[in-house]
Amino acid sequence: MYSLKQKYREEILAFSFLWPALLILVALLVYPLGDVIRLSFYDSNLNREEWVGFGNYIALSKDPLFWKAFVQTVVFTFFSVALHLVLGLGLALLLNLHLNGAFRSLARGLLIVPWLIAPTVAGMIWVLMLQPFGVFNGVLVSLGILDANSAVSWLGDPKTALGSVTAMNVWRAFPFFMVMLLAGLQAIPKQLYEAAEIDGATLWEQFRHITLPQLRSVITTIVLLDSIWTFRAFDPVYVMTGGGPAHSSEVLATAIYFDGFQKLRFGYASAEAVVMFLVLFVVSAIYVRRAMSNA
Hints:
Elements: H1 4-16, H2 19-39, E1 42-44, E2 49-51, H3 55-61, H4 64-95, H5 101-111, H6 113-116, H7 119-129, H8 135-142, H9 161-186, H10 190-198, H11 203-231, H12 235-240, H13 252-262, H14 266-294
Antiparallel strand pairs: 1-2
Helix pairs in contact: 2-14, 3-14, 4-9, 4-11, 7-9, 9-11, 11-14, 13-14
């Protein structure tokens, strides 16, 4: 007979197989996170550690550069995610039309290419394109939008630097939304649209009352995931502008890097990292709760 003692023995054996993975998780995630939280309460550099309590957080609250980086991170995240959703949904709707199968596969394959490019490589490509005598200005001159003698420095102008980085991030990551939303569209029962057509519903009414409600869970999930990924983005900003000019494209990830590894203000950078972690933790908690409610 299957005894309770044998059951516990098997459960202990099963959990024992998890210990290597748990140890790796603790070594690579839990310990570094705990040490960053600890350092945030110290004035720390290569030579000393001095307890300052909440001094770093108080200094953060009074630092205009920190708040500028925070606001720019929010702006960068909001416009990136919003444009990812708009472009991804629009292209997914086009690919979901009654198209030739071979053409649809070819179009989907070509459109997914930006997503396959590493962020660093994509950033370098756009740096070359956005140079004063690069491809982008050349196209605008050929269209008559720009004068041939007035080249725009898209990455060197504080007014356009953050927008340029956002544009690159939108181009690189919209295929993720397109693929996920296309899968969601193809899972919607065709009978719903057929019934709506019989009732005389217009295309807009079908989109509003059938497509969007059916895609709500997919949209919520990918928006939350993309918000997390974009909020902590470092590569595109560092490669394209380095946070400049004059901190006009600085985001939290680059601010943490410069404060920690260039200015050697480890305690201050750790406090910035903790603030960033708390924001991401809240968004992640929303995502996990959403995922569990749909399970």
